[in-house]
């Protein structure tokens, strides 16, 4: 009987909320837990922070993250153990702070190495390998990362694209307009607002 009641409760809970609502709730909880862990370790995280499927190594005390930051599927390393077996008989590891400024987006599979400072208003492209200092107001891509353009130039280009492309507000609307969009806008990106 207890199992049947439990199953009924679970079904009732899931039927009242959409898949997207459940995902958002889980994501908010994961963000909250991560922020708490960083702060408890001695690092800092600003307001309006979002993290998706990202790996941080264990030295969270060396991480400082600003406001309005999104990190998606990246790897953040505060250590470098590459020479650990070879220096002075082994057991050594280089560590360094990672500072991420305000208004930063870090794309999927990007790697941020120990000792890196990312300035304000920066977009890090997917797969970029970041080390050293990334200047304010820049878009960086590649391995090793290089500045592609300014943040402002990139936003301006995207605004121009948005004027030419359809804006789709949700998956249902996309599905309803899919054939029209695919035919009319072959080769273009679609934006979800």
Task: Write a structural description.
The protein is α/β, with parallel strands linked by helices and 193 residues long. The protein folds into two domains: 2-149, Hexapeptide repeat proteins (UDP N-Acetylglucosamine Acyltransferase, domain 1); 151-193, no CATH class. Helix content is 34%, strand content 26%. It is built from four helices and 19 strands. The protein has helices at residues 2-16, 19-41, 151-164, 171-184; strands spanning 44-45, 49-52, 55-56, 63-65, 69-72, 75-76, 79-80, 94-95, 98-100, 104-106, 111-112, 117-118, 122-124, 129-130, 133-134, 138-141, 146-149, 167-168, 191-192. The strands form five sheets. The chain has a six-stranded mixed beta sheet. The chain has a five-stranded parallel beta sheet with strand order 1-4-9-12-15, with helices on one face. Strands 3-6-11-14 form a four-stranded parallel beta sheet, with no helix packed on it. β16 and β17 (146-149) form a beta hairpin. The model has no long low-confidence stretch (mean pLDDT 85).
What is the element layout, followed by pairings?
Elements: H1 2-16, H2 19-41, E1 44-45, E2 49-52, E3 55-56, E4 63-65, E5 69-72, E6 75-76, E7 79-80, E8 94-95, E9 98-100, E10 104-106, E11 111-112, E12 117-118, E13 122-124, E14 129-130, E15 133-134, E16 138-141, E17 146-149, H3 151-164, E18 167-168, H4 171-184, E19 191-192
Parallel strand pairs: 1-4, 2-5, 3-6, 4-9, 5-10, 6-11, 9-12, 10-13, 11-14, 12-15, 13-16, 18-19
Antiparallel strand pairs: 7-8, 16-17
